[in-house]
Structure formats: structure tokens, C-alpha cells
Amino acid sequence: ASLGYAAKRGVIIKGGEWLRALARVDTLVFDKTGTLTHGVFALASVSLEPHVDARDFWNQVAVVEKFSEHPVGKALYREALRRSGIPAADPTEVKVVRGVGIWARIGSHDIAIGNDKLAETYGYTLSEEAHRKFHQNEDASQTTMMVFLDGKFSGILGIADTPKEEAAAALKALKKNGIRLVMLTGDNEAVAKNIAESLGID
Hints:
This protein is an alpha+beta fold.
């Protein structure tokens, strides 16, 4: 009966033994992006330094993220293309630094986009004001990235994702049944904490 009930709702379970195993589950682990959130990122904030030419900035961002497979990189590429208004050439060299960001060479220019570890990784100089802006974005639940053009700090980009409307109710029902909830993410701690709190995950 249980297997038939589940099948009517689009859930296929291969045998009753798995239902019995589920009855003993006390912890559920969820991936954040695309499971608990929509997984559709959009540019939420931009802060460019006074010396930066906006069109050139966005064109170089588009070149760096042109072949990105990461949801944040894809969102940046779409927005950068729209804002620059010109096609993005292929980068001549690209390096992805896990847990930090991405670096690319575009002709004779270098561009790096990444989190707050980026400056330390490449030996870039970052002002206190830039640090402040970065953490201000993080506090607003945005995935925040610094951008350096030819080693010079050029701006901060904030990307946001939102929780699925039905996620909080589903998680609340699980907690009510004594299930411990865990959320996994590669995002920074501040963003992860804000999303978890909005969904009722301790």
C-alpha cells in the first residue's frame, strides 16, 4: 500500500526494505543550491571603483566567465554580456582556483574574480574600504566576489539566490517528526547561515 501511495505521487521505491530503512533515519542532509534554493542566481549589487570604465570592466568579466560551468559564473556571464553590449572573446588562459575563484589572461591583461581569499592568493593589495564593502554584501546574504584588473582592485559584485517557497514548510514538517537537518554548501559562512536560518535549519 505504501509503495502504491508513493508511486501515485511520482516517487518510485524499489522494495519495502527501503521504506523500513527510512523509518530508522534520524538525519537528512541537503545540498543548498537548487535543492533548498531556486539555484537561479542573479546580480544583486555592483560597486565599481572610480577609475574603472564600466563597459570595459563588464566585457572582461564576460570573457573570464565565458566557459564557466558554475551557476554563479553563468549568471555573471549573462549579466556581463548584457551590460557590455559587445561579444566576449575567448580568454587566452584560464585558471580555476578551488575555493577562491578564477583567473584569466585576455591578451596582455589579467583579470581575477573571487572571494575574500583572492587578494591573499595572488598578492593583491586591498584597502580597508574594499574589505568593508565586501563584508557588507555578505551580511546581505549575497555571494560576494572581488574583481581585480591587472592586479588592481576594480569592484565588488554581489550575486543572490533565494530559498524555494515550499522548502521551509517541508523542513518544518521533518523537524516536527524528529529529523535532524543538515545543509551542505560551498558558499561562504555568512550566506549559508542566513539561508539556513530563513529555512529553520539550526
